[in-house]
From TrEMBL:
Protein name: LacI family transcriptional regulator
Keyword Amino-acid biosynthesis applies: no
UniProt-listed SMART domains: HTH_LACI
Keyword Transmembrane helix: no
Length: 330
């Protein structure tokens, strides 16, 4: 079996991104010489060479299917970061990528040997992708039950870390601005963040369904959902609010500031994804960090393994997250 960057990273004890940048002589990478030599020695031990990546020494084409349009992608830097990371990682591995936006299956070239699909997809869309190729890796969508490789963030522990942080701050009235997602053919996609939020609070006897409001993951929907929460709950507004993604968090923060509610003393906020936008709002937003670069490199490695061994059983990779505290928590 051919060696992947994941194999080298595991053996050397570093991230996949670090391995990739060292092997590609990235001069901007800040890493000590001992680590660099360990990675190079591991690659040499495994007899790793990039030209062995491509079957028959030919460049393979992989479609990168983004479930957002270009305009939508600009409003959600999370999915943009994943796509751009995949394209960079694929290029480093000697793969040629073909971008396809908003699930336009008819635009996928029929000569691609694999598909990396980013976002949410209905059963019928999965079948449409399958008609092009069976070598598919889904990113941010759990497709294991359908028989396809997939890569997802660790939603369960991410949500639990948020609730633990609020409780540690002395906050036991916790609300959520949840998101309702639909595929481009309008099939509803369950949100695991809300599922784990509700189930964890129930376990701790802290669940209040009236503290949950929903939007559609846009900044405007976050603004409107928070305005509705403020108007509906008044003085009963929860002291801690978990927000399903960064654009909604930015909109919610605007509504809170317009209502002259103090953050974080009266309301503490934690977002999810930790894209650049939440670092530069004021006050800067605490957020669950999802390692989009790591996801991108891992997705490409999974695709390479699939291309090399198409008959292998599908696998699911869960990428860890961590909570970053900034000015919207106490």
């Amino acid at each position: 079996m051919a060696v992947t960057l994941h194999d080298i990273a595991d053996k050397a004890g570093v991230s996949i991104a670090t391995v990739s940048r060292i092997l590609n002589n990235d001069v901007t990478l800040s890493v000590n010489e001992k680590t660099r030599q360990r990675v190079l020695a591991t690659a040499e031990e495994f007899n790793y060479t990039k030209h062995k990546r491509a079957r028959n020494n030919q460049v393979q084409r992989v479609a990168v299917v983004q479930w957002y349009s270009l305009t939508q992608e600009l409003d959600d830097l999370y999915y943009m970061a994943i796509r751009m990371g995949i394209e960079r990682a694929a290029q480093q591995q000697g793969l040629q990528t073909v971008p396809v936006y908003q699930n336009n299956m008819e635009e996928i070239p029929r000569d691609v040997t694999g598909i990396i699909a980013i976002g949410k997809f209905s059963d019928s869309q999965v079948q449409a992708l399958r008609l092009v190729t069976s070598n598919i890796v889904f990113v941010d969508y759990d497709s294991l039950a359908a028989g396809y490789d997939c890569l997802v963030p660790d939603f369960e522990n991410a949500v639990r870390s948020v609730i633990t942080e609020f409780v540690n701050e002395g906050i036991d009235d916790i609300g959520m601005l949840a998101g309702t997602e639909r595929t481009t053919d309008q099939q509803i996609v369950p949100d695991l963040r809300r599922f784990y939020f509700e189930s964890t609070l129930r376990q701790q006897n802290l669940y209040h369904p009236e503290f949950i409001f929903a939007g559609n993951y846009t900044s405007m929907s976050g603004y409107n959902a928070m305005k509705k929460a403020i108007a509906t709950l008044g003085d009963r507004m929860p002291h801690g609010i978990f927000i399903a993604n960064d654009p909604m968090a930015v909109g919610a923060l605007k509504a809170i500031q317009e209502a002259k509610i103090n953050v974080p003393n009266r309301i503490a906020l934690i977002s999810f994804n930790d894209t650049a936008i939440v670092k530069y709002v004021y006050p800067s937003m605490s957020a669950v960090h999802v390692a989009t670069d790591e996801m991108a490199h891992t997705a490409v490695d999974m695709m390479i393994k699939r291309l090399q061994n198409p008959s292998n059983d599908p696998c699911k990779t869960v990428v860890g997250t961590h909570l970053i505290l900034r000015q919207t928590t106490r």
